[in-house]
Amino acid sequence: MKEKIKITATELFLNLGFKSVTMDDIANEMGISKKTIYTHFNNKTALVNEVTSSLFCVISEGIDLICAAEKNSIEELYEIKRFVMEHLKDEKSSPQYQLQKYYPKIYATLKKKQYDVMQDCVKDNLIRGVHSGVYRDTINIEFISRIYFNGVTGIKDNELFPLKEFSMNTLMEYFLEYHIRGICTPKGLETLNKFITTNQSS
Asked: Is the pTM of this model over 0.90?
């Protein structure tokens, strides 16, 4: 039952937001009593903590598998973007922004874990990209990996990028192109243009 509650809560939180969804909403969605939820989770904060931790693990494992395939570095970034968007339901309710606003301690812990995982992944992507000739060999790996993380988290700021004007999927498309254009070689640009053309036609 605990796992079923987590799955339902995850769906509701991602689609409607961490703030909007109440324990009553989760109970009604599942057709169970609120008391049943409280036998597994002391309060909503505990449930949010479990949901975000589980989601983080699923996404991290998926990203690890994509990275292990050692595809072309540019292709890898697009594959990761697609995978993350799929699992976060395109972030229609800007969950990260709501998490930061209403559950700052959980957000801070999660951000630290995200940074640690992403640094390894992004640095590896950059190093392989340089070796394969799609990224310039003059880039500073440490700087680019940090600015990439800052950009990925920054575009989720709802005040800077209102969802009414930009969908999360669109923002990620823009950001990826912006990031790759800044570091790629003419060879890399050819690969990037293929992805831009494909995404525009799909």
From this structure: no
